[in-house]
Every structure is written in structure tokens, then in C-alpha cells.
């Protein structure tokens, strides 16, 4: 008779201890899984492991490629035809629209280091800023992958893309010759833009991944700065054996009807590959995959 109460008390104590231990472990587990510390350029930032409401004032295309859950995007990304179907119900927002950003209730904000109101944005939600051009196109994608807790996916894409681009580059060089040169030029309102090897428009693919050659004039004027402005009359001086023409549909492209243009050897030989400038101003996976296919078809099918 005396053993029963003691046994009962002992069982109750063990049960309470187990429940207490279980509750503590569950709470700790939930807390650990909700956020992590991301080491940004400006220092550590506590960010959600699975952000559900991202406002991307920069690097939106990188977020899109990793299927990040966007609620706000910059106007330039929104205007890009490649992303139209991927941005339904996503609001266009600028760095001076703090009230609108608050209304979007973000749990993560991605911005540029020169973005206005950065300090105020940090009061709204965890904010991570990137300096444009500080990272190359591959490292930038991997960094966004880290931020979104999708580093594995970002690295897998990067490795696969570089391998495929290098293989296609070898095929292109076999066809056009190891010494052939390629220029990347974009049309503007009254001028043209010549690009180096890191200014989007597929320049990273052509020069870095495929290792195609630049004309000397491009090396001298655009390699270091990334971009060089020229007049339509001087376009022939910067055009290589092949030309990737980033054609802006919103500007006057009538210079392409002039003798100056028509007498450029690359034009006369049919060695011009046109791309839409609105679809080529980023260096994210969606854009790069689109341009890789364009270059493969343009160089190898001509």
C-alpha cells in the first residue's frame, strides 16, 4: 500500500520532466529554423531562412531565377519582357516610396549600396545591400543564393552554366576561327555603346565563359570601364569580325540604313546577331540562359 503513492508521484514527475524537456527542445528548434545571420557588405544581418515577402529594389532577376517570393520589384525589371509572366501581382516600387514598401509588409529587402533611404528601410525589415559590379555575374548569383538559403541551387546552376557555355564557345571558335573578334554594341538615342566583358548584354558569356576575342579598339576603350560611348559614324572602328547588336526598339535606329553601316564588313558578311536591349540588361540566370541559346543559334546556324 505504501509503494503505490510513491510510484505514482515518480511517474508524474518523470512525465512532467519529459514534457518540459520536449517543449524547450521544440521552441529552440523553431527559433533556430526561422532566421540565420547573413554576412553582408555592411556587416551581419539577421534574415529569414525562408523569406515569404521580398522587396527587391536591385537583383530582382537573381531572386526570380531562384523562385524567391517577391512582393515588390524595381521598374526596370518589371519592364523586361523576359520576366513579365513571372511578376504577376508583384508591385513596382522605388527607393523613395517608403510608405508603399511598408504596405507591402516585406520580411526581406534587397537593395543597392547607393539606394536612397537604406537606414529607414532597415527599420521596416531586414535589409541587405549589394554594390553593383563588386561581384562578377557568377559570384553575385551565388551570393543571392546564400541570402535566400538556396546556395546549393545557385552553385549547381553556376557550375552547369559555365560548363555548357564553355562547350558552346569551343564549337563557335572552331567555326569562326580562334583569331576572330566579336563586338557587343547597343543602340541609343543619338549615340552607340560599346561594352567590355562585364556589362551584361551577353558580354560575360561571350568574353568570360566562351573566351571569344575583343577587337583592340574595344579592349583599349571599354575593357576597363565596362562601357564606351561612340557616334554612329565611328561604329565601324569598334566592330569586330562578328557583331552582337543590342538593339533598343524605343530609339531611332535609322543609322542602320546608312552606307556607313552597310559597308561594315561584319554587316556585309551577315555576321550580325541582334538581341533586344530590353531583354539583355541583366546578368542573371534567366537572361543568361536566353542569351546563351541566342548566341548558339546565331553563331552556329549562320
What does this structure look like?
The protein is α/β, with parallel strands linked by helices. The protein folds into two domains: 35-149, Rossmann fold (3-Layer(aba) Sandwich), CATH 3.40.50; 165-301, 3-Layer(aba) Sandwich (Rossmann fold). Helices cover 44% and strands 18% of the residues. The chain has twelve helices and twelve strands. The strands form three sheets. A five-stranded parallel β-sheet has the order 5-4-3-6-7. Residues 6-31 have low confidence and may be disordered.
Number of domains: 2
**SSE string:** HEEEHEHEHEHEHHEEHHEEHHEH
**Rough outline:** globular
Q: Based on the structure given, which CATH architecture of the largest domain is correct?
A: 3-Layer(aba) Sandwich
Pick out the low-confidence regions. Answer: 6-31
Kindly estimate the percentage of residues that lie in beta strands according to DSSP. Answer: 15-25%
Please estimate the helix content.
40-55%
Cα gyration radius (Å): 26 Å
The biggest beta sheet reads: 5 strands, parallel
Termini separation comes to 98 Å
Strand order, largest beta sheet: 5-4-3-6-7
Overall average pLDDT: 92
Q: Structural class of the helices, strands and pairings?
A: alpha/beta
CATH class (first level) name of the largest domain: Alpha Beta
Helix segment count?
12
Q: CATH topology of the largest domain, anyone?
A: Rossmann fold
How many β-strand runs?
12
What is the CATH superfamily label of the largest domain? Nitrogenase molybdenum iron protein domain
